[in-house]
Amino acid sequence: MDKDFLRMHRFPPEDCGGIIVCKLYKMPVEEAIEIFKRYFKLLNIEKIEKKLVIITQEKIRFRSRKNKSK
Question: How far is 30 from 18, CA to CA, in rounded Å?
Answer without folding.
Answer: 25
